[in-house]
TrEMBL record:
Binding site residues for substrate: Y439
Annotated FAD binding sites: T18, S19, V211, W440, H441
Domain Glucose-methanol-choline oxidoreductase N-terminal: 245-259
Family named by the database record: Belongs to the GMC oxidoreductase family.
Keyword tRNA processing: no
Gene3D superfamilies from the UniProt entry: 3.30.410.40, FAD/NAD(P)-binding domain
Highest rank taxon of the organism: Bacteria
InterPro entries in the record: FAD/NAD-bd_sf, GMC_OxRdtase, GMC_OxRdtase_N, GMC_OxRtase_C
GO molecular function annotation: flavin adenine dinucleotide binding; oxidoreductase activity, acting on CH-OH group of donors
Keywords: FAD, Flavoprotein
Protein's name according to its UniProt entry: GMC family oxidoreductase
Cofactor: FAD
Length: 504
């Protein structure tokens, strides 16, 4: 493995994040000469002392080496959209929860004409990703007191207890989380996928290498322009795989002249391929965090666990169904008890609407790859107010759980938003709309679809419409978000696209 910048390779993978590392590893294993270009640092293999402590610490969310994205002035409140700018991508930052979703999610893609994306097609990749990421389940007896109280409360509202949540035919349930934690370390895709191939002579991993644009000769991608060590370099390749994620992949395409022609001309970018869907269809699962006062018993038990050195912020999760999706489920709820706030205690449980209908966009503001884009999720903007109402129903479910005998004595009084402040369902809906937040699962900005669908950007194999040798491989190609946290689905996208590329 070389860290120098080669002049030419078989395949360039733009972005060493969750999906990109999977693609790079699988292609290197297949004998392709692969170059991974990561805009942030490459900290080396697992065990290298350069890895930041917060990225390794599986008890809480990571935060260093962030892209610095947020909602800007698109929302009444500023919402941070944390994304890791480092090898491993957002698998460096996440809460280590690995959920798969539901069969209907992926079967609906296949039913829309995306061959190879049905649930049964993807099951081998879910299994391969689970094995590579060393996913295991917490046991019930491993749950902290705050996590356990919500697990125990769920049956009272009709939500059964399970050992994990990854039965793709299952409806509402609560379970200890499936997680990618190894010896207390968040086991990211750099460890899981790149480390086994780092010693191969046919893969190069270059950090601090920010791709400005893809080079296209007529209708063929021929390489990239990359900013590395303060200078612009050209690297040629037979294929370019863009894997920057839902925020960054559309930016790379737009800077390359691939996108809405009217928008590109407004920035004086020559139009290489007019694709109006680039950067559109952005959606994430809106989120609301509720908090309770706790109790003396809860504080004492959690303090004891923290003193022992292992009290993860997240350990259990539930799936629930709103009235909008009674046959499957469309809500997640997860207890959250931060361990890194010193004497400040927060006893929280969050809820997320998993099938949002609101749509936004990502648009560059300049040809400069370091210029921040406009990221407008348009959270909760659907005119029927469905997204806000689903979230409010989820909050009402949490309130019902918290009021159960034996539970309310442990969780204490609701302090956010507070029943006295927001006592009715309609006021819950208004509260949600006034306080938009995200679940860190953006998707959809380069969606799969047929070439005659002006909203689509890539075909079912991730190939960009009208451009030979150019592929997108990350959550941006999802036409609709699955009912899941997207960490494992992102791995599966990498596995699925890699399998197509190996066949070429």
């Amino acid at each position: 493995m070389s860290t120098a910048l080669p002049a030419q390779v078989d395949v360039i993978v733009v972005g060493g994040g969750t999906s990109g590392n999977v693609v790079a590893a699988r292609l290197a294993e297949a004998g392709r000469n692969v170059l991974v270009l990561e805009a942030g640092p490459d900290f080396g293999p697992c065990g290298d002392p350069r890895w930041p402590a917060d990225i390794l610490d599986a008890t809480r969310l990571g935060h260093s080496n962030d892209w610095g994205y947020d909602s800007g002035d698109t929302l009444d409140v500023r919402v941070s959209f944390e994304r890791a700018r480092a090898i491993g991508g957002c698998s460096d930052f996440n809460g280590t929860t690995q959920t798969w979703g539901h069969r209907r999610d992926y079967d609906s893609w296949a039913e829309a004409g995306l061959e190879g994306w049905a649930t049964d097609d993807l099951l081998p990749f879910f299994e391969a990703g689970t094995k590579a990421m060393r996913v295991k389940d917490y046991r019930v007896d491993e749950l902290t007191s705050w996590q356990r109280v919500w697990f125990d409360a769920a049956p009272a509202v009709g939500i059964p207890q399970r050992h994990n949540l990854n039965d793709l035919d299952e409806g509402p349930a609560v379970a200890p989380e499936s997680n990618n934690i190894v010896d207390g370390i968040r086991f990211n895709t750099a460890f899981a996928y790149l480390d086994p191939v780092r010693s191969l002579p046919n893969i190069s991993i270059v950090g601090e290498a920010h791709v400005a644009r893809v080079l296209v000769d007529r209708v063929v991608a021929t390489g990239v322009e990359v900013l590395w060590r303060g200078e612009s370099h050209i690297v040629r390749a037979q294929r370019v795989v863009v894997a920057g994620g839902a925020f960054n992949s559309p930016q790379v395409l737009q800077r390359s002249g691939i996108g809405n022609p009217d928008f590109l001309r407004s920035l004086d970018i020559p139009v290489v391929q007019p694709l109006r869907g680039v950067g559109e269809n952005l959606h994430d699962q809106p989120f609301s965090l509720m908090s309770w006062a706790g109790s003396d018993r809860m504080t004492s038990e959690m303090d004891a666990l923290r003193a022992e050195g292992w009290a993860p912020d997240e350990q259990a999760m539930g799936k629930a169904a709103s009235s909008f999706d009674p046959d499957v489920f469309d809500l997640h709820f997860l207890p959250y008890s931060p361990t890194h706030r010193g004497d400040v205690k927060r006893w929280s449980c969050g809820v997320s609407a998993l099938q949002p209908v609101s749509r936004g966009y990502v648009r560059i503001t300049s040809r400069d790859p370091e210029a921040k884009p406009v990221i407008d999720h348009r959270f909760l903007s659907d005119p029927e107010r469905r997204d806000a109402r689903v979230l409010a129903e989820g909050m009402a479910i949490l309130r019902e759980m918290a009021s159960q005998p034996g539970i309310r004595e442990l969780v204490g009084e609701e302090i956010h938003p507070g029943i006295s402040a927001v006592p009715t369902f309609d006021e819950l809906v208004h509260f949600v709309e006034r306080n938009p937040d995200n679940y860190w699962h953006p998707v959809g900005t380069c969606p799969m679809g047929s070439a005659d669908d002006e909203k689509s950007v890539v075909d079912a194999r991730g190939s960009v419409h009208g451009i030979e040798g150019l592929t997108v491989a990350d959550c941006s190609i999802m036409p609709m978000i699955p009912r899941a946290t997207t960490a494992m689905p992102a791995v599966v996208v990498g596995e699925r696209i890699a399998s197509f590329l190996v066949q070429n």
